[in-house]
Amino acid sequence: MRLTCLLLLLTGVSASAQTWPVLKHYQGQQTYKIAMPIGGIGTGNISVGGNGQWRDVEIMNKPGIGFYGAVTPKQAPCFLIFTQDAKGVKRSKALLGPIPPNEYAGSEGSNTPSHGLPRFSTSSFDAAYPFATVNLQDNDMPVIVKLKTFNPFIPGDADASGIPVAVIRYQVTNTTNGLLDIAIAGSMDNFIGMDGYRAEFSLFNRSVVPLGTNKNRNTFKNTPKLAGIYMTSDSVDKDASTYGTIALTTSNANKDRQISYRTEMDTRGWGSNIADMWNDFTDDGIYQNKTFPDKINDPRGALAVKLKLKPHETKEIEFLLTWNFPNRKDWEDKVTIGNYYSNNYTDAWDVAEKTLPKLPQLERKTLDFVNTLVNSSYPLAVKEAALFNASTLRSQTTFRNKEGYFFGWEGVFNNVGSCYGNCTHVWNYEFASPFLFGDLAKRMREVEYKYALWNDGLMSFRVSLPLKQESNWKGAAADGQMGSIMRVYREWQLSGDDNFLKDTWPGVKKALAFAWINGGWDADKDGVMEGCQHNTMDIEYYGPNPEIEFWYLGALKASAAMASYLKDSEFEKTCNSLFENGSKWTDANLFNGKYYIQKVQPVNSEKDIATGLKIGMGAKDLKNPDFQIGEGCLVDQLAGQNMALVCGLGYLANPDHIKTALKSIIQYNSVKTFGDRFNNMRSYALGNEPGLLITAYPDLSKRPAIPLSYGDEAWTGLEYTAATGLYYQDMDTEALKVISDVRGRYDGYKRNPFNEEECGNHYVRAMASWSAIPAISKFQYSAVDGSFAITSKPGTYFWSNGYAWGSAVVSLKNKTRSVIIKVHHGDIKLNTIALASGSKLPGTGLLTEGQQKSFVFN
């Protein structure tokens, strides 16, 4: 069977008459760095730039930031428009906005994609992920054009949100008083086999030249639903991750539209491939298909759709980009593990055939989700941070193997993944998947407990592929392992899946008990971690510290709750005892009156450290260890506490101390202008940008000579973590400033709003931003007992549990509060409804999709 990838262009009336929401508007310089990924969960994507440029083609199982699906940028995928008025005046341009001035210069002139094509003079960008609109205008053109693009994104439905498709529409308005002929064409090289990863240096100027295409061919196909260019390659290795096909097609539904195409271009002369594409189309908006004796490895295809526009009339031409590249490889790019999405389609044409009839419903559901969130009472910056960072779920950072397990790098570099293996201490901070796609979060927990957990209870914080029991690499992260236990509790509560809990419980007990082994994290079994603790700072802590201790306390409390439910009374008793002792000890010994500190406890030798705990990136002198926090104020000292509050586990230490520590983080870790600070590491905040420093020392004399590894950096994921803690303490002003400061750095001019970096692009930890949603709304839901809690503060709040989602409208009139709960997707068990202030009412049992129920609290 031939496996395929399809670039599908469909004409027709918009699938939905609904107006697309706009959460953020960008114009001018603020569009320069925009690249919004368009693609499904685990499918790869292509990004749309702020000026409408199609860029960062990443559909072949690897990152491709800076790759344009062509050997040279001038051959990048592009769309063109042709117009002709009643007097015969013809005008043509690429459907692109201006080139940013900083991309003008180069050793051979501009190297920006499609740099030689005429463009519209102005453009702006409207976004409410996954919806993007690029507005194009030019006084010399008789039309206004909007590029509208999205991919279905429906929380609770990972399959519908994991379709390898980009919906692309060009909405054209005739601004004249006369009749216009218009045509829109899409054109791209057949780049099968070439993903931008394999390349060579040009002998002429040492520029990087992508490799991989091999006797690729284009064919015109016509089926009852679709017609177009079908791009194939029989010579690319069929086992390669780059093997598939591409097509450019259009729907047969609109008989008033003339379809024309080219399967190849004249390649004689310099740059003739592009010249032939342009000249043939701009003559009359109709392509005349031709063949040529000389064949190249990456022939260019094109498709045009021509129609008439009455004066001031608006019509849309709809495009779909679909693909199917089934041969995803493992972390080391050696063994094929497959793609889950490819199970659902025989090839990319099949993707188009199956998606087309479902598209109206998919769009309506996506719009319902986005509108429900956008119209909620959350601050703009909070909605932007949560929604825009959710795009990481559909970047090359994440994928699903053939069996449907969910995996993720920590992030991605331009051409390769960054830091493999579902890293537990990074995914600790991520809240988008559990609250939007609960099944994916559960599948990740299954990987941790089926394949990363060793028989002795050590959980490898990086899991190997292909999957097998007891991962190839044996190294534990204290925060990641304890956090994983809390995440099991979270996934169980949100799903109500008792079978999941029962299957995972033996592993949870092993993972927790591993802390108590000789030379372990809590070898004396007193509820306090004193041992060698590898962690998300990529070093080891020696001695009790808040960052790890709160994860441990959370794991103990979560384990006690799970043990109680499963009637494992002895283990419940053990966990409760350790929690009580550890919590009291932490307040008595680590809280210094302002925040929680570390008590450094060196070890005599590596013999005192259990196998697998010391990874080797930290201190060499164990008797005087470097990279410790000491008396510093750590920005995420309460990360485990945050998780406990999100999960409904409550406080892990004295609530007054928690609030004081958060106030201290704002007091000591806030930096007004990072450009005034020395930083010998990575810079994520520069110049006059404000933010939160990872580690601050109110008394500089207490700062270690060799301080914490990343202490002078600012990570967005940790800033969001601090903001969430502030929201739980009702310190809304401080919390909003933290989030606004982060999003101010990702303003489209300085950085891409859809790509928060850390160790790589589209970094997982930034999805901590979603935790601000339940923190503000005080949303708590347990599918186990059917309890639903929401804030008593009047407003409209989006809520979700990973399987269902909807809105909760809280109102106050004459001292009487009412709550209207509406389910937009899925169903929830609603046995009790409570306000965060403490009032509680009986529920109604099952509340299904489309239903709503009002509750009045007197």
What does this 3D model show about the protein?
With 858 residues, the protein is an alpha+beta fold. The protein folds into 3 domains: 360 residues; 402 residues, Glycosyltransferase; 78 residues. Helix content is 24%, strand content 24%. A hairpin with a 4-residue loop joins strand 33 and strand 34. The radius of gyration is 28 Å and the shape is globular. The chain starts with 5 loop residues before the first strand and ends with a strand. The N terminus is likely disordered.
Number of strands: 38
**How much strand content do the residues show?**
15-25%
Structural class: alpha+beta
Rg over C-alpha atoms, rounded to the nearest angstrom: 28 Å
Mean pLDDT: 95
**Which blocks of ≥5 consecutive residues have pLDDT under 50?**
1-16
Neighbour order of strands in the largest sheet? 1-20-11-10-9-8-2
Give the termini separation. Answer: 66 Å
Instruction: Report the CATH architecture of the largest domain.
Output: Alpha/alpha barrel
Main pleated-sheet profile? 7 strands, antiparallel
The CATH topology name of the largest domain reads Glycosyltransferase
Helicity level, as a percent range? Answer: 10-25%
| Domain unit count | 3
Specify the overall morphology: globular
Number of helices: 15
What's the CATH class label of the largest domain?
Mainly Alpha
Summary of the model, kept short:
It is built from 15 helices and 38 strands. By secondary structure, the protein is of the alpha+beta class. The protein has three domains: 6-365; 376-777, Glycosyltransferase (Alpha/alpha barrel), CATH 1.50.10; 780-857.
